[in-house]
Write a structure and sequence with these properties.
α20 (about 370-380) links the parallel β7 and β8. The chain contains 21 helices and eight strands. It is α/β, with parallel strands linked by helices and about 400 residues long. The termini are far apart. It has four domains: about 10-100, Alpha-helical ferredoxin (Fumarate Reductase Iron-sulfur Protein, Chain B, domain 2), CATH 1.10.1060; about 100-145, no CATH class; about 165-275, Rossmann fold (3-Layer(aba) Sandwich); about 290-400, Rossmann fold. The relative contact order is 0.12. α19 (about 340-360) packs across α20 (about 370-380). The chain binds iron/sulfur cluster (2 copies). The site of one iron/sulfur cluster (SF4) has 15 residues, from α2 and α4.
């Protein structure tokens, strides 16, 4: 008996087209068209599955413009697994070589050959330190300029503290730390994480052999490459034995937890720190300041840990933490969307900065490196004096402990 191949987008049939997800969609907020809403995209997937809808450039562009924020999935009463479906749609488009802004030669080269590899990323940030260097490496119009404006400023020193770090308080357990591309883009947050975890009495393992999380590849229609990274990471972290895996970028953690091939025992870092609060609890120096707290989509909609970050920051006396009043809307970063769809990304960042202005804060905290770079760049474009950092950076600075 021959086995029948499952038809594509099978789970899209769960959608009852109620439209409850539509107002939560950031691309719908920007464009106001059904084709740029989750319901519209699910209809397109169903049309492609039956062959009633031909795959043309317009269909591809509406599917490609999805940020993968999964706000729709969170809002859906029918539990449509939209995140998995849009990944399937991207793989469907990529296999048919559909023309998409996210699949240009230069972006693919960046995603496949530079971003996942620490040494190459380090080299790229050196030769790419100048616009002319970037133009030589990435001649595609606009991309080199955009990359340069996104680069963290000032450029952080790379993270190189691989190995095992002993706790600075009586040992209560062990934890593994994922670094990924943050070893080159957000070393300060990794160092802050190390300081806090060790002060919590945790022995921290940071294996040098770990790979990229693969999120950018999965969301760009390359599940094979993403699965290879997942297998590599399973081997490296599995060899450490039973211990939670955490990290400083919620986008990476969401992928490590959610990939179906080899999901790992991931714990979002604020949740982990709260659940293992030593007794007596570590003390923090007071800070009389107002900070706005941005919640990345990967934290809100996938890891479901928005409250824990605010609770942890509540341990700093006198600190006034105001959740960004953005209604839970994506800031527009969306992995490499800030590079492939700069206009849409900038409109959404503009909305986030308008919401920020309402808080009166000039210090913004966010737990995902993509959002941090994107929002900091948008603020620079507006001429705003805004400091953007990871909540752990502030916590580690205020920690009243040696080390
Ligand atoms: S995805 Fe869910 S919320 Fe959106 S239209 Fe379909 S059933 Fe309704
Ligand atoms: S994932 Fe985000 S951008 Fe994409 S359809 Fe859902 S809500 Fe809209």
């Amino acid at each position: 008996m021959s086995q029948s191949t499952p038809s594509p987008f099978e789970q899209a049939r769960q959608c009852v087209m109620c439209g409850l997800c539509v107002p939560h969609c950031p691309t719908y907020a920007v464009h106001g068209t059904e084709a740029d809403s989750p319901r519209g995209r699910l209809s397109m997937m169903l049309g492609l599955a039956t062959g009633e809808l031909p795959l043309d450039a317009q269909v591809a562009s509406h599917l490609d413009a999805c940020l993968g924020c999964r706000a729709c999935e969170r809002a859906c009463p029918s539990k449509v697994p939209y995140g998995a479906l849009i990944d399937e749609a991207r793989a469907f488009l990529a296999a048919r070589e559909a023309p998409m802004p996210s699949a240009t030669t230069a972006l693919r080269a960046l995603r496949d050959h530079v971003l996942p590899y620490r040494e190459r990323l380090g080299m790229a940030s050196t030769i790419g330190g100048t616009l002319s260097g970037l133009r030589r490496a990435l001649p595609e119009a606009g991309l080199s300029q955009r990359l340069l404006t996104l680069a963290p400023q000032p450029r952080p020193a790379r993270f190189n503290a691989f190995g095992v770090h002993e706790p600075t308080a009586p040992c209560t357990g062990e934890v593994a730390l994922f670094t990924g591309c943050t070893a080159h883009t957000d070393a300060d947050s990794l160092r802050a994480a190390l300081r806090l975890l060790r002060a919590w009495g945790l022995r921290v393992h940071v294996p040098r052999e770990q790979s990229c999380c693969g999120a950018l590849h999965r969301h760009a229609g390359d599940p094979q490459r993403a699965d290879r990274f997942a297998l590599d990471n399973r081997e490296v972290f599995g060899a450490l034995g039973e211990m939670p895996l955490t990290g400083v970028s919620t986008g990476c953690l969401a992928e490590l937890q959610g990939n179906t091939t080899t999901p790992l025992a991931v714990e979002e870092i604020a949740r982990l720190l709260l659940s293992r609060l030593p007794s007596p609890a570590p003390r923090f120096r007071p800070l009389r300041a107002r900070v706005a707290l941005h919640t990345p989509c990967s934290l809100r909609n996938v890891l479901r840990g928005a409250d824990e970050v605010a609770t942890l920051l509540g341990h700093v006396p006198e600190l006034d933490v105001i959740p960004l009043p953005d209604g839970g809307r994506c800031c527009g970063a969306g992995g490499t969307h800030t590079l492939s769809h700069p206009e849409q990304a900038d409109r959404l960042a503009g909305m986030a900065l308008d919401a920020l202005a309402e808080t009166g804060a000039t210090h913004l905290l966010t737990s995902n490196i993509g959002c941090a770079l994107h929002l900091a760049q948008a603020a620079r474009q507006r001429g705003l004096a805004l400091t953007v950092e990871h909540p752990l950076g502030l916590l580690a600075r205020q920690l009243d402990a040696p080390g």
